[in-house]
Amino acid sequence: MALGEPGFGIYVHWPFCASKCPYCDFNSHVRPNGVDQPRFARALARELAHFAARAPGRTVSSIFFGGGTPSLMAPQTVETVLEAIAKNWTIAGDAEVTLEANPSSAEAENFAAYRVAGVNRLSLGVQALNDRDLKRLGRLHDVAEALDAIALARLTFPRISFDLIYARPDQTVAEWKEELKAAVDLAADHLSVYQLTIEQETRFADLHAAGKLILPDMDLAADLWEATHEVLDAAGLPAYETSNHARPGAESRHNLVYWRYGEYVGVGAGAHGRIVEEGERRATAMEKNPEKWLRLVEAHGHGLVDDEALTREEQGDEYLLMGLRLAEGIDLDRWEDISGRVLDPARLADLASHGMVEEIREGNSRRVRATRDGASVLDAVVADLAA
Fold first, then answer.
1. Residue 375 domain boundaries
2. How far apart are CA 122 and CA 197, in angstroms?
3. For the chain, give me the number of helices (H) and strands (E)?
């Protein structure tokens, strides 16, 4: 896609996990007695039809199965959902179809069937490349399983990525650098690297409050962040977004839909979306409880609990917040068109003088992007510009 072109995406949320990771605050649920997958697949197809009627005629450039743990989906469930999308919209010939997966051997058995169903990019939740930290993070796989899953994924899918978490307890900069170098050799062209943070209502939040979980202090966390960029830049995987690194051309198209403030339909329990309907940009959100969502869809054709038109100011703030996460930054003319405002030149100049942002002019195009220093305190930069 061209610079700044967002595309149109479909996000499918599968809200089930084999176990709840202690750091995770995503909408994920454990169902020991199993899930009626054909019933959920039918509901997802019905909800997709609801949105196709509201956002017709689009060409889908990206489809993303997120969660939860989408690799707990039967391949037939994935196929049913992809068929429903193809029935309701045109899917671009080069569309990216991503499925998030855990590296356990049981789930890896389905990789070939997912590829046959139409998945062409796999995102693996590896999180760490040593068994000590995998156990601390509550992961069900070990390093050997992760390595096997990565090798199988590389043989099966045209593109893969995997996630790593840093700023883990007792982690040193030297250890992290070695782990990143190993990851570069394994991942080939894309890595997602997230700092471990304490989220409310998680097991880690309880342990942290009780003094039983100690994370690296701010200085060490900053050093780990710098080490991330140092190693991955040198390996040819620069950050194209705050937490995502890729070789040029291997960026996640689906994530670019979000960060470039494109349209995307979100289906499944707890999913969010942004669609333009009759000239209004609308924010949608689904019921989080899977069984309640299922009943709502079966009764009404959708599980919506929020469906609101966004004001121009809200849209401008969202575009600013999302777009400044990208290395390419935001298009100033587009921001002004979306928000109906003009970015305060004095604020922009002040942030630029402190090395937080830079303005880029190419012909008639004006872009603003965060610098490396600005990206490390991005929330403050966004708040200053949006004020």
1. 326-386
2. 25
3. 16, 17
Residue 271 maps to a domain: no
N-term to C-term CA, the chain: 32
**Tokens representing 64?**
């993303």
Any domain includes 310: no
In the chain, how many domains are there? Answer: 2
Cβ-count burial 211-238 (b if 16+ within 10 Å, e if not): eebebbeeeebebbbebbbebbeebebe
Token pair for 321 = 């917040």
Taking the C-alpha atoms of residue 102 and residue 79, their distance in angstroms, rounded to an integer, is: 19
Q: Exposed, middle or buried, 2 (CB in 10 Å: 0-12/13-18/19+)?
A: exposed
Burial of 4 (0-12, 13-18, 19+ CB in 10 A): middle
pLDDT tens profile 151-183: 999 999 999 999 999 999 999 999 999 999 999
Q: Which two tokens stand for residue 245?
A: 């690194």
Cβ neighbors of 284 (< 8 A, separation 6 or more) are 266, 272, 273, 274, 275, 304, 306, 307
**Cα(91)–Cα(60) distance, rounded to whole angstroms?**
5
Residues 184 and 75 occupy one common structural domain: yes
Predicted structure pTM score: 0.94
244 and 331, same domain (yes or no): no
The mean pLDDT of the chain is 93
